[in-house]
Amino acid sequence: MAEMPRKQDAALYGAGPLFAVAPMIDWTDRHCRFFHRQLTGHALLYTEMIVADAIIHGPRERLLDYSEAEHPVALQLGGSDPQKLAAAVTIARDWGYDEVNLNVGCPSDRVQSGTFGACLMREPALVGDCLAAMRDAAGAVPVTVKCRLGVDDQDIEDALDRLAQEAVRAGVSAIWVHARKAWLQGLSPRENRDIPPLDYGRVARLKATLPGEFIGLNGGLTSVQDSRNIAAELGLDGIMMGRAAYQTPEVLADVDPLFYGADHSPIDYPALIAAMEAYAARHIASGGRLNQVTRHMLGLFNGLPGARRWRQILSSEAPKAGASPAVIREAFAAVRLPDTARNAA
User: Which of 42, 113, 219, 273 is 20 to 30 A (C-alpha) from 234?
Assistant: First the structure.
C-alpha cells in the first residue's frame, strides 16, 4: 500500500499549465503508468476508470496498488451513487493518490448499462451531488471531473455550462473536458473517439465563463509542442493527451522541458530498458507475467529501423509461460538507434 498523500491541491493545480496522460480503459494500468513515468517525471498520470462498487466489494489491493514511482497519480472512479462514490474515496485515501477524478465522459456499453460515465451529462445536478460527496470524503486530496461537451442531441452550450456549474458548486479542483460530444445512440465507443467533431473553441468559451477555475483540454492532441501552444492560445490551464501518449510514448519525453522547464535531453534508451527489465523482474517475482508489462511498450521506436522486429519479439515471446525480462533486452537489440542513443547498451 502506498503512503498517505504527499501533494496538496496547489501542488497539482496552482502553478502553470499542467500536462496529464488521460485515463484509458484497458491501457493505463499500473504497468503502463510505471513505463510512462520513465519518460516524464512530472506529467499527471491517471488510472483506468475503476467502478466504485468494485472498490467497495472487490479485490482492493489488486485494483488500487501502484508503484510509488508513479506519483503524481490520480484515481479515476466510475459511478453515479454519491454514497458509494464517497465510500470508494474513503477506502482509496489509504493508498495515497494525489487526486480523485469522476468519469463523466466514457461512452462504453458498460457505463450505459450502469447509467454512469457519459450518461451523467444528462444529470448535472446528480453529478454535483456525486462530486460533493467525493469532496467531503477526500480530505486534502483534490477532486476533479472529466466530461464531454454533451451527449446525443444535447446543446453543447447549455449541457457543458450546467455540468460545469454543478462541478464548481461541489468544489472541484479541475474540470477536464474531452472536446467532443458522445453519441450514446448510433456510435460505438471506438467511433466516439474520432467521429464527433472536435470543438476546442467551446472549451475556451467555458474558460472565459469560469476564469477562476482550472479548465483542461482533452481530445485529438498528438504533439506536446502543439498542445502547449493550444493551451496558451485558448487560455486553458492544462492539456490531457490520450492515445498518442500510449501509441507513440516517446512524445512524453517532451513534456518535462515544454511544460515544466526541465532541460531537453534525448531519451536514455539503455537506462529505460534497464528500468523496465528490473520492473518486469519484480512483477514476475510477485506472480505476474512478462507480457502484462511489455504490452504497453510496443509503441516504442515507431519509425526506426528494427521497430517491427521489436514488436514481433515482444508480441511472440513475452506471452510465453516462463518468459523472463531478458526478452526485453533481446527485442531492444533488434532496434537500430544512433550511436549516441545506444552508447550504454
Answer: 42
The pLDDT tens digits of the residues spanning 225-253 come to: 999 999 999 999 999 999 999 999 999 99
CATH number corresponding to 9-260: 3.20.20.70
CA–CA dist 338, 1 (Å, integer): 41
For residue 15, which of 203, 245, 250, 260 has the smallest C-alpha distance? Answer: 260
Backbone angles phi, psi at 225, to 5 degrees: -60, -45
Ligand-binding site membership of 218 (annotated): yes
- To the question of whether residue 261 is assigned a binding role by annotation, the answer is no
**pLDDT attached to residue 341:** 56
Q: Is 343 exposed, middle or buried (0-12, 13-18, 19+ CB in 10 A)?
A: exposed
Share of the chain above pLDDT 70, in %: 92
| 130 classed as catalytic | no
Going by C-alpha positions, the residue among 25, 19, 133 that lies closest to residue 72 is 19
How high is the pLDDT of residue 116?
Answer: 80
Q: Is 146 annotated as a binding residue?
A: yes
| 0.90 exceeded by pTM | yes
CA dihedral 249, 251, 254, 258 (to 10 degrees): -120
Cβ contact 290:327 at 8 Å? yes
Domain with CATH 3.20.20.70 in the chain: 9-260
Tell whether 114 is in a known binding site: no
Q: Is residue 243 part of an annotated ligand binding site? A: yes
